[in-house]
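Progress report, Aim 2. The chain analyzed during this reporting quarter is listed below.
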Amino acid sequence: MSDEDFSALPPHEAFDELARIVLSEHSIESVMTAVAEIGKRLLPGVDEASVTFVRNSKAQTVASTGQLALGMDERQYQEHHGPCLSAARTGELVRVDDAQSDTRFPAYAEGARQHGVVSSLSVPVKLPEPVGAAINLYSRRPSAFDPEVVELARTLAGYAGVALANMHLFEAQANVAENLRTALESRAVIEQAKGALMAQRRCSADEAFDLLVKLSQDTNRKLRDVAAALLESVRPDADDGSPGTSATQ
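Predicted structure tokens for the chain:
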């Protein structure tokens, strides 16, 4: 993410910047930090912003633009109640125009008084269950979030959800690619070991494979590990005077 000041950008350019993030170069935390920064710099009335994740009833702030936002989040986590938790858990936007006159979150009102927060907006980010998320926007002014700002915040949450979904897909694909690479390497080792056994025992490929499987079962080791050990034993500089024969007898 560049250090460009998003407050000087039209909304679509700010969102495009988020959409162009190269997932392989970022973590979830760095992407959510970009989201929080956009929320603070782009949306009028926002003094600080944060992103809350809730998983298995456990909440945490994965990104924030300052101590004010972090302190407000943590106050809600301590009380297990508040706008950001409500938005993350229910998937419904929560707007507080004046924390001191809003009767829905009494403990939150006390935290807002301590931190100088008057109004706030918590916008849910759509994620696959069991993870809930919300973008939290805090302001020192009353009624800071008019319908236009609310709509921009919803759009930001939508982009954040897409970025997280794409990151999840990227990580899943990376895991698949890694598993495939490991499988291909294992196959290559096994094929080499089969070839070594065929040369030693003057047997067929099927017979060599059956020997490897039997040794794997007898020693309770993975087939790839048995194959790798056999190849190690038949190296020219191996200590064993009769390479590989003891492993398969």
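The chain has two domains: 6-169, 174-248. Confidence is low (pLDDT under 50) at residues 1-8, 240-249. These observations will guide the mutagenesis work planned for the next reporting period.
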